[in-house]
């Protein structure tokens, strides 16, 4: 056995001399080249994978690919040894992929909401136009001799539908101006408590508020502050009316006014409440969701406009809600002395 190994060694490794030196050099070269190939593959494979990942992101493919599973050694998501050097980069790419995928889904959802919103707005504008055209045609028809009482009734209907269209167009115009920050505030010194009391009285007298219990609670009788009366009235009116429109009759709606380092106007109801998704999307433009079975009317911009107007006053707005327990909307404004 030993003799055989000796003979094999002599055949592979020549005797001393030039041939032996050449063989050693060639062997060393082969070893170095082999090491470089193995090392290059170990280092280059993760880079090739990362470049491919970035390329997929650039082409709009954000979901995990099948190739991703190959970089892990086990189901516990432990990276294989060659990928350890790029661990932080891989984590950041994962985060970026998740963010881009969520943004893509949100964009798809927003586009769908816009399409539904446009269809709703078209319907809301078409409906009063149909009434106006119908009543106008009836009054102008030579076939009938309408009484004064009937004409008055027709004109009242036309005026009501025209007012509805004016409100819709006003919402659209105001929303676009707020987006472009083209609505400067006209600051006035105002008694906040009396200001809110008038808004509550106005909503109470709205026919849609019949059967609802509205009340105002405050810790003081007089709070002077600076605000844009017209725009903030629009915001608070939208918020209070929203508590009416999206809750069943008999719901109690209470408006609280509090003062500490800021001014707080809290609109709380004990109605049906909202889901987590409803709370998250409440101030989104084009969202016309409702917690009741009543078909939503309006532009779907009322709550978004309310939030924009509160923010324009340097304030903030927050919502908390529980299904079947109620909703609370808190408006916080800076205290102007």
From TrEMBL:
Catalyzed reactions per annotation: ATP + protein L-histidine = ADP + protein N-phospho-L-histidine
One family name in Pfam for this protein: HATPase_c
Family matches, as SMART domains: HATPase_c (SM00387), HisKA (SM00388)
Chief location of this protein within or outside the cell: membrane
Organism: Paenibacillus monticola
One GO BP: cellular response to phosphate starvation
All copies of domain Histidine kinase, residue ranges: 120-337
Subcellular localization(s) per the UniProt record: Membrane
Enzyme class: transferase
Keyword annotations: ATP-binding, Kinase, Membrane, Nucleotide-binding, Phosphoprotein, Transferase, Transmembrane, Transmembrane helix, Two-component regulatory system
Coiled coil regions in record: none
Gene Ontology MF annotations: ATP binding; phosphoprotein phosphatase activity; phosphorelay sensor kinase activity
Protein name: histidine kinase
Transmembrane segments: 24-43
E.C. no: 2.7.13.3
Organism lineage string: Bacteria, Bacillati, Bacillota, Bacilli, Bacillales
GO CC terms: plasma membrane
């Amino acid at each position: 056995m030993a003799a055989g190994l000796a003979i094999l060694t002599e055949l592979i490794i020549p005797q001393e001399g030039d041939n032996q030196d050449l063989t050693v050099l060639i062997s060393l070269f082969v070893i170095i080249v082999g090491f470089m190939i193995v090392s290059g593959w170990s280092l280059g494979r993760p880079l090739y994978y990362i470049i491919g990942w970035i390329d997929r992101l650039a082409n709009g493919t954000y979901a995990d690919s099948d190739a991703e599973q190959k970089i892990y050694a086990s189901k516990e998501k432990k990276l294989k040894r060659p990928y350890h050097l790029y661990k932080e980069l891989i984590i950041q790419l994962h985060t970026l992929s998740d963010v881009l995928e969520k943004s893509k889904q949100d964009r798809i959802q927003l586009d769908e909401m816009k399409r539904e919103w446009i269809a709703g707005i078209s319907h809301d504008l078409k409906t009063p136009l149909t009434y106006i055209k119908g009543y106008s045609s009836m009054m102008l028809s030579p076939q009938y001799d309408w009484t004064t009482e009937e004409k008055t009734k027709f004109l009242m209907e036309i005026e009501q539908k025209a007012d509805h269209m004016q409100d819709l167009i006003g919402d659209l115009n105001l929303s676009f101006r707020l987006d472009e920050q083209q609505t400067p505030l006209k600051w006035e010194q105002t008694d906040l408590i009396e200001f809110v009391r008038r808004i509550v009285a106005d909503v109470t007298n709205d026919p849609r508020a019949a059967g609802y219990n509205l009340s105002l609670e405050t810790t003081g009788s007089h709070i002077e502050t600076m605000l844009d009366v017209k725009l903030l009235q629009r915001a608070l009116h939208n918020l209070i009316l929203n508590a009416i429109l999206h809750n069943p009759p008999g719901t109690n709606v209470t408006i609280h006014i509090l003062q500490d380092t800021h001014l707080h106007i809290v609109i709380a109801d004990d109605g049906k409440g909202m889901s987590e998704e409803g709370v998250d999307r409440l101030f989104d433009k084009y969202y016309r969701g409702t917690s009741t079975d009543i078909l939503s009317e309006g532009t779907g911009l009322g709550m978004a406009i309310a939030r924009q107007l509160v923010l324009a006053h340097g304030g903030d707005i927050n919502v908390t809600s529980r299904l079947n327990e109620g909703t609370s909307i808190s408006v916080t404004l800076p205290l102007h002395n």
